[in-house]
């Protein structure tokens, strides 16, 4: 090496720096690739993506060829830099100063800079690098396999503990991807998240409570029954005798049009037009019930508890609203049940579901217990309040605002 000129030695260092920067950048770019987008591009026929995907099937060998190549380059650069330093500073100070200067130089130009660029544009570098890394891997396969064998032997205990992990996304991870790393319109994101949430919700979470079921008591007089049919805001009503537990069937109001006049009306005709009631357990997951509605060709179900007593009513529309949001034609829904105040707090109807409050306000009130705000506040108070009482639930301050008939009608809440 002594016969080479100083200019040639410096040129060799520059070339080795470029090669080292290539290896460092390729490593970062390959590891930073979005695996799902990579597979999509590979399936679409992108040649660079196909090669990169093939290399990433064995990341140990990919890293092996990159690190072996990079270390060889760095060792060569150290020899050349040592020669340059000895010529400039002598045999005593040259090696020490040369090592320090080379370390800083390589750190900046062969590590930090290329890796920063690669992290910002991984696809551009990774796809082009795949054309070089693939033949390099074939050429150096024996050495890479030997190095991998030793490293895998040493890493075996750690690999064994993580062997069961896969690249599949959990529901929570998929939600994060949808919310942060996608160009899908927000409304479509919300629909997809709604579908994913069906697995974690049950029929009990979306049913109309027993006390709020609108129906027809067949024992009422004709005028009352006709008024209930004509004023109904729903397309299907349960028909029962005296109480909902003695249900006769479900009446579709479209069928009721043929006997809505007092002259043609008869209770027997009304009963004949009803469908057999369809019962479902409270614990049914929403995604399961959605398929059951389709299989049974039903749109309305009466929800029963473990003792067979009717606790509420659920409809296909209720489940679909979990996905697409409110689309009911009920004019009372436009009045709103959550009202923002000037101080940043919210006045909330006590009958509103906790899940709906969380969805509307972005809160995270507990949903594993009571379904409504009324029930949630009572659970934390552990006694019925005599007047306005405040309670802290997580990071939210909730205050009872109006109480009638032993029910908390409205509450006032604010995030702390």
Would you give an account of this structure?
With 416 residues, the protein is α+β, with helices and mostly antiparallel strands. It has three domains: 6-161, no CATH class; 201-327, CBS-domain, CATH 3.10.580.10; 334-415, Uridine Diphospho-n-acetylenolpyruvylglucosamine Reductase, domain 3 (2-Layer Sandwich), CATH 3.30.465. It is 55% helix and 15% strand. The protein has 16 helices and twelve strands. It has helices spanning 6-32, 35-43, 47-55, 59-120, 122-139, 141-161, 171-180, 186-197, 203-206, 222-231, 253-256, 267-272, 286-296, 316-324, 354-361, 373-381, and strands at 208-209, 216-217, 236-241, 243-252, 279-281, 300-304, 310-315, 338-340, 346-349, 390-393, 396-404, 407-415. The strands form three sheets. A five-stranded antiparallel beta sheet has the order 8-9-12-11-10, with helices on one face. Strand 6 and strand 7 (310-315) form a beta hairpin. Helix 3 (47-55) packs across helix 5 and helix 4 crosses helix 6 (141-161). The N and C termini lie far apart (71 Å). Residues 329-335 have low confidence and may be disordered.
